[in-house]
């Protein structure tokens, strides 16, 4: 993500850690602008997390398969959320 004010690049890592801390605002290191996730993108992330969980739970024939697919899914979701989430100046 590029800062709207100064053009500094806000890295994937910074966004990742902001999401891990319950959507803490991302702050541009160069100009100090605060970015907060938009409501819509937080909704999208929730859907992205929840829908496949129900799907996996329904389709899995055994607990082990469920746990394995669930773990793989969570890992993928963890890495992809920074690409889904959109920020606005807060
Ligand atoms: Zn900036």
Structural class: mainly alpha
Poorly predicted parts: none
Task: Give the termini distance in whole angstroms.
Answer: 15 Å
Shape: elongated
Instruction: Find the count of extended strands (DSSP E, 2+ residues).
Output: 3
- The main sheet orders its strands as 1-2-3
Mean pLDDT: 88
Helix-strand string: HEEHHE
- The number of domains is 1
**Helix content class:** 55-70%
Radius of gyration: 16 Å
> Biggest sheet, in brief?
3 strands, antiparallel
The DSSP helix count reads 3
Enumerate the distinct ligands: zinc ion
Estimate the strand proportion: 5-15%
What's the helix and strand layout?
Layout: H1 12-20, E1 26-27, E2 34-37, H2 39-59, H3 63-84, E3 87-89
Antiparallel strand pairs: 1-2, 2-3
Overall description:
The protein has 90 residues and is mainly alpha-helical. It has one domain (12-89). The protein is built from three helices and three strands. It has helices at residues 12-20, 39-59, 63-84; strands spanning 26-27, 34-37, 87-89. The protein has a three-stranded antiparallel beta sheet. Strand 1 (26-27) and strand 2 (34-37) form a beta hairpin. Helix 1 (12-20) crosses helix 3 (63-84) and helix 2 packs antiparallel against helix 3. The longest helix is centred in the last third of the chain and has 22 residues, at 63-84. The model has no long low-confidence stretch (mean pLDDT 88). Bound molecules: zinc ion.
